[in-house]
């Protein structure tokens, strides 16, 4: 094969990996507190940069190349600890204080912003929430319902450089019990599209009403099981 032909064939193979881009840039708490996505450095001049896109492939998570939050081309495996520590310091919160984190709404709805850079960064997204491990254990993530999604067909659409509001519902009965970077009562929400998969994750906690509702749901379920046993 001619060298030029070989080069073009290789380029065609890797082009989707280079151009496809969509990432979770921000979580917007029901308490009015907003926070960058976990793949977005606190000092990033452009949080929509391709370098901040999380590549979240199950095969790479299993092999250890990526964390359950994925990896970025700019920073490697994504972790939540350093982001939460920096956020807590900036907010003037003491160690272990989750009060300054964004919260889910009282009904357990989480609102995040997903930025689609080009046609290969589209939806529909899937979502999962980790209520226990702070994003460190793949099996801690539980499938979550998306109430408001990103349009697209198999990760592709005509949209580009556009923000989409995504709303994710916590699984019934889930409580935020993770500890991350010394901060307690943390949940991690993760979204990804079919094309890469590309996406990102964010940290949040629950309002008192949301937690009470989840605990009451679990108590009712235990009572049902005991009654039918």
Automatic annotation (TrEMBL):
State the UniProt keywords alphabetically: Signal
This protein's record includes keyword Signal: yes
Q: Which Pfam families match?
A: Egh16-like (PF11327)
According to the record, the signal peptide region is 1-20
Transmembrane stretches, start-end: none
Q: Please state what the protein is called.
A: Cell surface protein
Which organism's genome codes for this protein?
Cladorrhinum samala
Taxonomic lineage of the native organism? Eukaryota, Fungi, Dikarya, Ascomycota, Pezizomycotina
């Amino acid at each position: 094969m001619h060298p030029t032909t070989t080069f073009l064939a290789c380029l065609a193979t890797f082009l989707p990996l280079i151009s496809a881009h969509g990432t979770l840039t921000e979580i917007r708490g029901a308490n009015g507190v907003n926070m960058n996505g976990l793949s977005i450095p606190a000092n990033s001049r452009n949080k929509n940069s391709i370098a901040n896109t999380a590549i979240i492939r199950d095969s790479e998570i299993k092999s250890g190349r990526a964390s359950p939050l994925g990896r970025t081309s700019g920073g490697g495996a994504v972790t939540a600890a350093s982001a939460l520590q920096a956020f807590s310091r900036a907010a003037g919160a003491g160690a272990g204080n989750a009060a300054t984190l964004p919260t889910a709404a009282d009904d357990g709805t989480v609102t995040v912003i997903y930025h689609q850079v080009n046609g290969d960064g589209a939806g529909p997204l899937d979502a999962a929430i980790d209520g226990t491990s702070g994003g460190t254990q793949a099996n801690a993530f539980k499938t979550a319902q998306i109430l408001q999604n990103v349009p697209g067909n198999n990760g592709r659409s005509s949209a580009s450089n556009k923000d989409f509001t995504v709303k994710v519902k916590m699984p019934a009965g889930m409580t935020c019990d993770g500890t991350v970077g010394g901060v307690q009562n943390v949940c991690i929400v993760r979204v990804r599209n079919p094309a890469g998969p590309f996406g990102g994750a964010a940290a949040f906690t629950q309002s008192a009403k949301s937690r009470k509702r989840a605990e009451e749901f679990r108590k009712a379920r235990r009572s049902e099981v005991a009654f039918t046993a």
